[in-house]
Amino acid sequence: MKLYYSPGACSLSPHIVLREGGFDFRLERVDLQSKQTETGTDYRTINPLGYVPALQLDDGSILTEGPAIVQYLADRVPEKRLAPPAGTLERYRLMEWLNFISTELHKGFGALFNRAFPQEARAIIQTQLAQRLAHVERKLGTGPYAMGQDFSVADAYLFTVLGWGEYVNVDLAPWPALLAYLGRVAARPAVQAALAAEGLVPAK
């Protein structure tokens, strides 16, 4: 398999899952401005929308959209417990998490990266994000991870999106449980390996 990624973008989530799952995979970096991959390919021939992630499967087919990719990967390695079994209520709880992160957090943080966004709109988005972050802190409760005791694909996605706060002036200090959660996830060896491979932390 090959993951098309851009350092620190939402493609970090499936990158983490690939490492947590012990998959054999390759990385190909994408310049999101030029839409060129590191091998000189026009990325729009891979994903016409031009954004990451995209996962090329062993048969050459392409899967896009992070929440779909991470569930696909989790189902390939059920023994890793990265997602509850399909058809169970807990699997729908996982989907609930992934949809919330995608629509209520990812889109909000993502908009703040757009320098053309008016200041008035930024203030509205930051207020909405504060409400959503308070909800996440409550929802996490005392469990170490989003789904309880087991690290899941929801954690890979939530960790990725919460990590954007430092780049868009969203201070997580009002939610100490979120900061503690980020620390727990960041300490996982697979997460450290993914961060290092993307040049986000020094390689050990």
UniProtKB/TrEMBL annotation:
Coiled-coil regions listed: none
Enzyme class: transferase
Alphabetical keyword list: Transferase
NCBIfam families, A to Z: PRK10542.1
The species this protein was found in: Thiobacter aerophilum
Encoding gene, per UniProt annotation: gstA
Protein name: Glutathione transferase GstA
Record SUPFAM superfamilies: GST C-terminal domain-like (SSF47616), Thioredoxin-like (SSF52833)
Domain of life the protein comes from: Bacteria
Chain ranges of the GST N-terminal domain: 1-81
EC number(s) recorded for this UniProt protein: 2.5.1.18
Signal sequence, renumbered to the chain: none
GO molecular function: glutathione transferase activity
Residues annotated as domain GST C-terminal: 87-204
